[in-house]
C-alpha cells in the first residue's frame, strides 16, 4: 500500500501556472512569424477614402510600421500612375533590391526621395524602390485626384 503526501496549495498553483504556460512555449517560430505578419496591416484615410494595406515581411515595412500612427502626412498625385506622401523620416533600406510582379495596388517606398509611392497604374521597378506591401482593395481608392491630408494607422 502506497501513502501519498498531501499536495499544498502552493504546489498546485505552480503546477497550474507551468501547464498553462506550456502551450505558449510550444508555438513554432513559423506560427509566431505568421502572427507578426498578420498584425502588419495599415489603414489609409484621405478625402472620403478609407482602405487597408497588408505589409510584406521585410525590414523597410517593419520600420514603416514602427512609425505609426502618422497623422500629419499629405498625399498628392505624381506622374500618371502613382500617389506619393513624404514620411517624417526615412525607413531603413536594409534588404532592398529588385523585385518582380509589379502591379497597380503596390505600396512602395522610394528611398532617394524618402516618400511612399502608392501605385494605381502600371510601373516597373527602378533603383531605390522598395515594395512594402499591397493595398487590400487594389488601386481603386487611389484614383481620386488631388492633394489631401493623409492618415496612416494600424488595423486592429
What does this molecule look like?
The protein has one domain: Cyclophilin (Beta Barrel), CATH 2.40.100. The chain has helices at 9-26, 29-38, 59-66, and strands at residues 41-46, 49-55, 70-78, 82-86, 106-110, 115-119, 129-135, 148-154. Helix content is 23%, strand content 33%. Residues 7-37 have low confidence and may be disordered. It has an eight-stranded antiparallel β-barrel with strand order 1-2-7-5-6-4-3-8. It is an alpha+beta fold and 156 residues long. It contains three helices and eight strands.
Q: Could you give the count of β-strands?
A: 8
Low-confidence stretches: 7-37
**What would CATH call the architecture?**
Beta Barrel
Q: Tell me what portion of residues adopts beta-strand conformation.
A: 25-35%
The SSE string, one letter per element, is HHEEHEEEEEE
Strand order of the largest sheet: 1-2-7-5-6-4-3-8
Average the pLDDT over all residues and give the rounded result: 83
- Class of secondary structure makeup: alpha+beta
CATH topology: Cyclophilin
Shape call: globular
Note the total helix count: 3
Largest sheet: 8 strands, antiparallel, barrel
* Helix content range: 10-25%
CATH class: Mainly Beta
Count of spatially separate domains: 1
